[in-house]
Write a structure and sequence with these properties.
Blueprint (H helix, E strand, L loop, with lengths): L5 E6 L3 H12 L1 H8 L3 E7 L14 E2 L2 H5 L4 E6 L7 H10 L3 E4 L2 H6 L1 H11 L3 E2 L10 H6 L6 E7 L2 H10 L5 H10 L8 H4 L2 H15 L8 E3 L7 H9 L2 E11 L4 E11 L3 H4 L4 E8 L5 E6 L3 H18 L2
Parallel strand pairs: 1-2, 1-4, 2-3, 4-5, 5-6, 8-10
Antiparallel strand pairs: 7-9, 7-11, 9-10, 11-12
Helix pairs in contact: 1-14, 2-14, 4-6, 8-9
Bound molecules: NADP nicotinamide-adenine-dinucleotide phosphate.
NADP nicotinamide-adenine-dinucleotide phosphate binds next to α1.
């Protein structure tokens, strides 16, 4: 560690990265107190260094390798997203003997083995609390349940689809509700990841991998798109006292785990039925603990930054 504190480097300074940088600017005393040592943000790599950002005064570079090669940086936070170049950058960070913290669910879900092997060989930590349910400490929760035999995991893991379902309850069509989700900033320009279930499948794959202690690849998750949902499905559910929600379910059978994501009916007064926006709800049934429920904000820059900083603080507490 440098005399100026444990150094952190950011790869990406978008919605999440900027929120992390603002937190370092606004609450460094709190972060240092929790870590038990000074922790400071050294630099951030971006695609376009000329872009205007609300990200404190962190120095920016267009060269992510400058972060990996910086001897002042001990922890690399990857919030670029996707697999390329994020995969090579995270593996490169391990080769440079840095710890890695990420919110990148796609990369963790698809490259579980390579990333864990990279961390193991480098004797560094890979942490990804922010990759599932953002601020909700569900990864820590799953890690603490190593002794239980899971039966069923059920979750609302994607806020965009929850928002669309709840808007359809007001009589909107799927297309109208999707347009509203985009206007409200919930859905991205290309909504495929959310409405076709890739995002929920990545998150479910990570949770199952943690519970089973081995990689459960997202291609093992059966995906049903939300695009097929009609206004009559939603009004029919309402007539039965139910609501349609985009649910992620893992059934841990005796022989094999079956995982699926897709629209399903739930009681209107259930926690899932009551959720209308980015609120995530995760329920685990197991042999030793009949029912555990986690709930809270599963998206947004600040909520995601909270989980990332929690990981950074824990690494700072543990590493020499
Ligand atoms: N947004 C959320 O609420 C949320 C919640 C949980 C998890 N996540 C995950 O967090 C990650 C980041 O999401 P986000 O919403 O913050 O994305 P974003 O707003 O699109 O930001 C991506 C950042 O990466 C930078 N970037 C892209 N390609 C790069 C490259 N080749 N080298 C260096 N920098 C590059 C971009 O630079 P420029 O700014 O210069 O374009 C931008 O700053 C994703 O994995 C996402 O799934 C997001």
């Amino acid at each position: 560690m440098s005399s100026r504190g444990l150094g952190v480097g950011l790869l990406g300074l978008g919605t999440v990265g900027s929120a992390v940088a603002r937190a370092f600017a606004d609450r460094s005393r709190r972060i240092d107190a929790a870590a038990g040592r000074p922790v400071r943000l050294v630099a951030a790599a971006v695609r376009d260094p000329q872009k205007e950002r609300d990200a404190g005064d962190v120095p920016v570079t267009a060269d992510p390798h400058a972060i990996l090669d910086d001897p002042e940086i001990a922890i690399v936070i990857e919030v670029i997203g996707g697999t390329d170049p994020a995969r090579d950058l995270e593996l490169g960070a391990f080769e440079s003997r840095k710890h890695v913290v990420t919110a990148n669910k796609e990369l963790v879900a698809k490259e579980w083995k390579a990333l864990h092997e990279g961390a193991r060989l480098a004797k560094r930590e890979l942490r990804f609390e922010a990759a599932v349910a953002a601020a909700v400490p569900v990864i820590a929760g799953m890690r603490g349940l190593g002794a239980v035999r899971p039966r069923v995991l059920r979750g609302l893991l994607n806020g965009t689809t929850t928002y669309i379902c709840s808007r359809m309850e007001t009589g909107k069509s799927f297309d109208e509700a999707l347009a509203e989700a985009m206007a409200a900033g919930y859905a991205e320009a290309d909504p495929t990841n959310d409405v076709d279930g890739h995002d929920a499948a990545y998150k479910l794959s990570i949770l199952v991998s943690l519970l089973e202690g081995r990689h459960f690849h997202p291609y093992n998750v059966r995906r049903m798109s939300l695009r097929g949902i009609a206004a009559s499905d939603v009004s029919g559910a309402a007539a039965r006292g139910a609501r349609v929600r985009y649910l992620a379910v893992a059934d841990f059978g005796e022989k094999a785990t079956k995982a699926r994501v897709g629209p399903e009916e739930l009681p209107a007064d259930s926690l899932e039925g009551q959720a209308t926006g980015p609120t995530n709800v995760i329920t685990l049934e197991s042999d030793l603990v009949p029912r555990l429920v986690w709930s809270g904000p599963g998206a947004g820059g600040d909520a995601t930054a909270s989980a990332i900083l929690g990981d950074v603080i824990q690494i700072a507490q543990r590493s020499a």
